Amino acid sequence: MFATRYGGLGGLGGLGSTKRSDHLEHDWDSDWLPDIDAFDHGGKFYCNVDLPGVKKDQFHLEIDNEGNLVLTGDRQPDESIKDLNSRIQERNYGRFRRTIGLPLGSDIDNIKARCENGALYIEVPKKPDVHRRIHIE
């Protein structure tokens, strides 16, 4: 896995800018990369992913052992155009994989995700800061 092709800023870098951040990674073996916007707001982390032409059963979202969101899937052309001679083909097809590093304190047990109109919307609540005093003997 490598940092995104556009580099970026550390942490959630890129907030308020158009640069992609270092916390987004992809597998260089992917055939294409869905576009992602990630941001913090009101104690939550949000991630919006463009997945035009990808049906809900063509992708998976999971948490890996390091606490990252991992989005994988496969977009294939419509069967009705597979055998036609293309004059222009600008849409990308095939496998994709994106790894999204979650901010510290993310509540991974309460992540919500919904797919609507060719986009995936992910909402990750953050746990409140809890400071416990440790008794020193």
Describe the structure.
With 137 residues, the protein is mainly beta. It has a single domain, classed as Immunoglobulin-like (Sandwich). Helix content is 0%, strand content 36%. The protein contains no helices and 9 strands. A 5-stranded antiparallel β-sheet has the order 1-2-7-6-5, with no helix packed on it. The radius of gyration is 18 Å and the shape is elongated.
List the helices and strands and how they pair.
Blueprint lengths: L1 E2 L20 E3 L9 E6 L2 E7 L8 E5 L5 E7 L18 E7 L11 E5 L2 E7 L12
Which segments are poorly predicted (pLDDT under 50) over 5 or more consecutive residues? 1-22
> What is the CATH domain class?
Mainly Beta
CATH topology: Immunoglobulin-like
The helix tally amounts to 0
Reported CATH architecture: Sandwich
Domain SHSP: 27-137
Protein name: 1694_t:CDS:1
Family: Belongs to the small heat shock protein (HSP20) family.
Keywords: Stress response
Brief overview, please?
With 137 residues, this protein is mainly beta. The chain is 0% helix and 36% strand.
